[in-house]
Design goal:
Layout lengths: L1 H30 L2 H34 L2 H18 L2 H13 L5 H14 L6 H20 L3 E2 L2 E2 L2 H10 L3 H35 L5 H8 L4 H34 L27 H4 L5 H11 L5 H6 L13 E4 L6 E4 L6 H19 L14 H12 L5 H6 L13 H35 L5 H13 L16 H5 L5 H21 L14 H10 L9 H9 L6 H6 L2
Antiparallel strand pairs: 1-2, 3-4
């Protein structure tokens, strides 16, 4: 029955699409709008030729990441090559470029679809062999990264186990060895990654850009100088609060390890990159989640705010297994409702936050209206979906939220009061947001310089950025490609700044939601649970626009103002 119903729905959508296209063609012809007629033809071509490849590629990408097999990665590469070849069509691109530059399309929905198509085709206007080289290299590096497991004392460790050591061990020497083992993946992928960086830059220059980083920002409708200006403003707002927090963290960690603060090194912090807040708050949040069914909590929470994720969870792959990617992500397979999450859940605060985050992505993808044309039936921008994901992820540290979903009941762990847990959670969230903002400064500025001059001493550049923006003392005499141990530099280049812009978006949307739904409440007191108006607000203000609006226009539509760090700065006071 379900299969019959699904095909009936798809058939109805296909008929509706044909009717819509026919009506647009008729209207364009009636007005004599040749540009609109050309746009309709190009959109139809995309849906016939590119859309099936995008769906195949999403499925292959999913299979490669859940299995890690060579066969799955070869299939992913094969489909990626087909997709790239289809998008490299010079004739179609010339027509798109002409329409974009002439600004002659009258119908705004058609004009936006052509703009999206143009930005999709642009990076593929290269020699097919160069595109294949890039795909082949990306696949090789990504697979090497995903199947790598650090080894210490003859034992291979999962990513969760590495993080557990860094959170819990008081043995500085063992911590150092585990941290160093986790970084060896950088050496494994360094050669291929450097070749890939050169190939990416070569492609960008052929398309008229100075380097790959600039190209990726422009393709994502961002201007490099504007992004840098936003991060400079953020730097000013966060520097002093971060330094105060860092001093408090260093004093506590030094005391825990029996060393002086100036002896602290990267392995003394509680995650491999110091992008998360160390657990120094005298409240073990992992212990609060130790007996929690994280998936069930998420299922009930999202249902309570009017954003059902049961179907998403049923399709997802949520627990550890060999060969599988050790990270987490959400993917929309077909823009028809097949949304999935890959995760490696264990009962901990980190995985509660991660699942709230990934399901934030999922509800955004799922609730983009199906009435929108395929090209616009997706998220407005990377930063918008990251912002919604981060807005939900922040809840995991809030006692009031934990109580509202049954993670914490009336009986608290021995020796703890609700006031202690609430204050620790607030401090932890504030520390987390500050620490992450500084880490994002490292990522943006390192990648910017990496692609501007990939032949410089990248190991030295990496640690210069880490020391400047995170205040971490580099290990003496270390000359290893630690920058290459960050998966995003390998597999999601020129992406990371969108996480921080997402944090700004999250604060701005949250504040707007509080003004609309609970004007008598402080932003920090509004936790969403059991309030279906939250889902209604997000569907109307954010999800409902799909990709019709560029990210800066969406931000104004959702919050009433352009994106700034001011709401974020208010949230970290």
């Amino acid at each position: 029955m379900w299969l019959e119903s699904k095909w009936a729905t798809l058939a109805a959508l296909a008929v509706a699409t044909l009717i819509m296209v026919a009506s647009l063609v008729w209207a364009a012809r009636a007005r004599g709008d040749s540009a609109d007629e050309q746009a309709i033809e190009l959109v139809r071509l995309y849906e016939q030729k590119i859309r099936p490849l995008e769906i195949q590629l999403a499925r292959a990408w999913w299979q490669a990441n859940i299995s890690g097999t060579e066969e799955a990665y070869r299939e992913k590469e094969r489909i990626q090559n087909q997709y790239d070849l289809a998008l490299s069509d010079r004739e179609v691109f010339a027509r798109l470029k002409s329409l974009v530059e002439s600004r002659s399309i009258r119908n705004p929905v058609l004009a936006r679809q052509i703009q999206v198509m143009y930005l999709t085709y642009l990076p593929k206007q290269l020699d097919p062999e160069l595109l294949k080289q890039i795909t082949r290299k990306e696949n090789a590096v990504e697979r090497a990264f995903n199947v790598f497991r650090p080894e210490v004392d003859g034992k291979k460790l999962t990513d969760n186990q590495v993080r557990q050591v860094l959170r819990e061990s008081k043995d500085s020497d063992y911590r150092r060895r585990v941290w160093e083992a986790s970084k060896r993946v950088g050496r494994v992928v360094e050669k291929d990654l450097k070749e890939l960086i050169q190939l990416r830059n070569q492609a960008a220059r052929k398309l008229g850009f100075d380097n790959f980083h600039d190209m990726m920002l422009v393709i994502n409708e961002q201007q490099p100088n504007e992004i840098l200006r936003l991060f400079d403003e953020l730097d000013e707002l966060t520097r002093e609060p971060f330094l105060a927090v860092k001093r408090a963290i260093d004093e506590r960690l030094a005391r825990d390890y029996g060393i002086s603060p100036d002896e602290l090194r990267p392995w003394h912090y509680h995650d491999p990159f110091f992008q998360e807040a160390p657990n120094i708050f005298d409240v073990d949040f992992d212990e609060l989640y130790r007996r929690t069914n994280i998936v069930q909590v998420c299922r009930e929470f999202f249902a309570g705010i009017g954003l059902d994720v049961r179907d998403v969870l049923d399709r997802s792959d949520l627990f550890e297994k060999p060969g599988k990617s050790p990270h987490a992500f959400c993917i929309d397979i077909d823009r028809e409702g097949d949304v999935r999450v890959l995760a490696n859940v264990v009962p901990s605060e980190r995985w509660m936050e991660t699942m709230l985050h990934e399901l934030g992505h999922a509800v955004y993808s799922k609730y983009v209206p199906r009435r929108l044309p395929y090209l616009l039936r997706t998220e407005a921008h990377i930063l918008a979906t990251e912002g919604i994901a981060m807005m939900f992820g922040r809840l995991s540290k809030r006692l009031s939220w934990m109580q509202s979903v049954g993670v914490v009941g009336d009986k608290l762990p021995d020796g703890l009061t609700s006031e202690q847990i609430e204050q620790a959670g607030r401090d932890m969230l504030r520390y987390q947001m500050l620490i992450f903002s500084r880490w994002c400064q490292v990522m943006l500025r390192f990648e910017r310089e990496l692609y501007k001059n990939p032949d410089q001493d990248l190991n030295r550049l990496w640690w210069q950025m880490v020391q400047r923006y995170q205040g971490i003392t580099p290990p003496e005499g270390r000359d290893e490609p630690d920058y290459a141990s960050k998966i995003h530099i390998v597999a999601a280049p020129a992406y990371y700044h969108n996480y921080m812009m997402g944090e700004m978006f999250a604060s701005q949307v949250h504040h707007a939601m509080v003004r609309a739904l609970a004007p008598d409440r402080a932003p920090a007191e509004f936790i969403y649970t059991g309030n279906p108006k939250v889902g209604e607000f997000l569907r109307e203000r954010v999800f409902g626009h799909g990709r019709m609006l560029p990210w800066n226009e969406l931000t104004r539509a959702a919050t009433g103002q352009a994106l700034t760090p001011l709401a974020f700065a208010e949230d970290i006071r």
